[in-house]
């Protein structure tokens, strides 16, 4: 199935699924279709990232900040991603994408994605994202306030702080 069809299917069904809280997990099920395959006849690396986009949209809709994105004409953008591919997804194999917020700071949201099949982890990723408006990135405090979420201003696990530090050294 084409990525945009998967996105439309998720968006159409989101209002009928349970609303999610700020830290809740989204779970979406998919299947590997022939147009998802690369020359090795397993799911293409780029397709994993495209499916993860759908997971983030599902979180936005079901957590309630998609309305803010629409009203304020914000653009959800990913600045970086850390991905570990553990196993290959085969043609027609069903899989589940699990997405959840694992941390944030004043500017960035850190979202974990896990792709699982048959109880096994196939791919795990963390993306660093923000909501971009005309004046720049929407501060996380403003997003939390719009969602009426009581949460600390910053919540970054130690290992994410190390990733942030390593990424700072990677800049060219």
UniProtKB/TrEMBL annotation:
<dbReference type="InterPro" id="IPR029069">
    <property type="entry name" value="HotDog_dom_sf"/>
</dbReference>
<protein>
    <recommendedName>
        <fullName>Thioesterase</fullName>
    </recommendedName>
</protein>
<dbReference type="InterPro" id="IPR051490">
    <property type="entry name" value="THEM6_lcsJ_thioesterase"/>
</dbReference>
<dbReference type="Pfam" id="PF13279">
    <property type="entry name" value="4HBT_2"/>
</dbReference>
């Amino acid at each position: 199935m084409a990525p945009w069809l998967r996105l439309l299917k998720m968006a159409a069904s989101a209002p009928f699924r349970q609303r999610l809280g700020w830290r809740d997990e989204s779970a979406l099920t998919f299947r590997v279709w022939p147009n998802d395959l690369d020359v090795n006849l397993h799911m293409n690396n780029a397709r994993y990232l495209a499916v993860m986009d759908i997971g983030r949209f599902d979180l936005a809709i079901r957590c309630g900040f998609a309305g803010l994105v629409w009203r304020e004409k914000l653009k959800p953008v990913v600045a970086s991603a850390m991905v570990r591919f553990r196993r290959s997804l085969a043609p027609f194999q069903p899989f589940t994408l699990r997405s959840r917020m694992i941390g944030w700071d004043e500017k960035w949201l850190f979202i974990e994605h896990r792709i699982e099949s048959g109880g096994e982890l196939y791919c795990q990723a963390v993306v660093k994202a923000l909501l971009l408006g005309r004046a720049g990135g929407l501060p996380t405090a403003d997003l939390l306030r719009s969602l009426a979420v009581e949460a600390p201003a910053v919540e970054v696990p130690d290992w994410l702080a190390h990733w942030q530090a390593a990424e700072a050294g990677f800049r060219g």
